[in-house]
Each structure stands twice: as C-alpha cells, then as structure tokens.
Amino acid sequence: NAGVMQNPRHLVRRRGQEARLRCSPMKGHSHVYWYRQLPEEGLKFMVYLQKENIIDESGMPKERFSAEFPKEGPSILRIQQVVRGDSAAYFCASSPRRQGTNEQFFGPGTRLTVL
Amino acid sequence: DAKTTQPTSMDCAEGRAANLPCNHSTISGNEYVYWYRQIHSQGPQYIIHGLKNNETNEMASLIITEDRKSSTLILPHATLRDTAVYYCIVRGGGADGLTFGKGTHLIIQP
C-alpha cells in the first residue's frame, strides 16, 4: 500500500507566478489535510478536505490560497501570485477516519521556493 | 484542544531506552494523546496514540498516568535514526487538523 504521495517535491517560482501542489492520499483514505512549515518553525494546519468538500479552512490565508479535492484525482493546493513569504515546506496528510481516532499519515512534502 | 508541555531537547545514548515526557494537565475526558515525530526535512510520522490505557506497538510504548495529566513516550532501544523532533498532541476523536507545538528535539548519541 503506497503512502501519501506529493508532487513536485521541489518547486521554484518567481514572485507573481502560480504554484500548484498535488497530493494523492493513501488508498482508501478519503480525508486530506494540508499543513505549512515555514523555515525554522513548526507545522501549521491549513485546510481539511473530504472528496469534493472543504470541511475546515480555518488555517488558510484569506487571499491567494485555495484547495480542492475532486471526485477523481489528487488534492490540489493552489497559491496564486506567490510572494517570498510563501517559501515553505507544504505537507499533505491523509486519514482513514476510523471512528474515535485521528491518525494522519503524511507525505514527503513539497518545498516551495519563491525567488 | 488541551495544551501540552514538553522539554525543548533531550539526549539519549544509542541502545538505551528514550523516555519522552509530556504534560497535559487540562486534558478532558474524551481527548486522546497522540505522538508524532519529524525526522529532519521529512514529513511527520505517526507513532502511537492512547486514551486511558497504556499502549504498545512496533515503534514505541505510551504510558499515560492514571489522572491522565501526563504521559511518557518510550522508545525501548533508541537508534541514531530515532533522532527527530517528537510532538505530543492532545485532541478529541474528531477528524480535524492537528495542532503541532514546538515538540522535543531528541538527539541519540552514538
């Protein structure tokens, strides 16, 4: 059973460009989470999605950031008009949503560098 | 979610048991204790979780005090590859996002 997959692993963008980060959850997992880790800081929750639904986006910046998890295909985190402060590691996690627990399995991350 | 307190860093000799403490004095009755770790530059890794009883799996053991106000993660035979930041997280059984604190930087010494 393959783990959570993220691509690309490294992404370089110039200021003002768009960044698209992809996440394929583990087989059988219908819950996806995105986290951001700024340099030398801890992980911060951004958004929680189920298939075709955003459940909790309380950690998402109000502008330029969006996320989706379509019926078919991977979850996408989209950052429009990137700025240098968006440079970070972005981790995706998936969960099987067993009743009463919240184990999340993380991917290897996408390192975004904004020039 | 209940707040947790962990030491900033700890050392442990290779081959010895690493015991990582976590205080969570405001934990409520339906909240679980989760442990994750993050090895440098990698994605966090789930280790173990528990509610009231002690738990053991192939990676570690989790000892939760009877009053549930603190817990200890035990790595029975630490190796150099166990050097990582270890996060203790307390939260309910819902499917919400996790709140990571600063964790404990565990350094395994050869």
Account of the 3D structure:
The complex is a heterodimer of chains A (115) and B (110). Chain A has 115 residues and is mainly beta. Helix content of chain A is 0%, strand content 49%. In chain A, β4 (31-37) and β5 form a beta hairpin. Chain B is 0% helix and 45% strand. In chain B, β3 and β4 (45-50) form a beta hairpin. Chain B starts with 8 loop residues before the first strand and ends with a strand. The interface between A and B is medium-sized, with 30 and 22 residues.
Name some characteristics of this structure.
heterodimer, A: 115 residues, mainly beta, seven-stranded mixed sheet, four-stranded antiparallel sheet, 11 strands, 0% helix, 49% strand, globular, B: 110 residues, five-stranded mixed sheet, 9 strands
Break the fold down into its secondary structure elements and pairings.
The complex is a heterodimer of chains A (115) and B (110).
Chain A: E1 5-7, E2 10-13, E3 19-24, E4 31-37, E5 43-50, E6 53-56, E7 65-68, E8 75-79, E9 88-95, E10 105-106, E11 110-114
Chain B: E1 9-13, E2 18-23, E3 32-38, E4 45-50, E5 55-56, E6 61-64, E7 70-75, E8 84-91, E9 104-109
Parallel strand pairs in B: 1-9
Antiparallel strand pairs in B: 2-7, 3-4, 3-8, 5-6, 6-7, 8-9
How is this structure best summarized?
Chain A is mainly β and 115 residues long. Chain A has strands spanning 5-7, 10-13, 19-24, 31-37, 43-50, 53-56, 65-68, 75-79, 88-95, 105-106, 110-114.
Question: What is the 3D shape of chain A?
Answer: globular
- The residue fraction in helices of chain A comes out at under 10%
Mean pLDDT of chain B: 93
- How would you characterize the largest beta sheet of chain A? 7 strands, mixed
- Per DSSP E runs of 2 or more residues, the count of β-strands of chain B stands at 9
The strand count of chain A comes to 11
Overall residue-averaged pLDDT value of chain A? 92
List the uncertain runs of chain A: none
Q: Strand order of the main beta sheet of chain B, please? A: 1-9-8-3-4
Distance from first to last alpha carbon of chain A? 37 Å
Q: What does the largest sheet of chain B look like?
A: 5 strands, mixed
Q: Structural class of the secondary structure composition of chain A?
A: mainly beta
Total number of helices of chain A: 0
Order of helices and strands of chain A: EEEEEEEEEEE
Distance between the termini of chain B: 37 Å
Residues in β-strands, percent of chain B: over 45%
Oligomer: heterodimer
Number of helices of chain B: 0
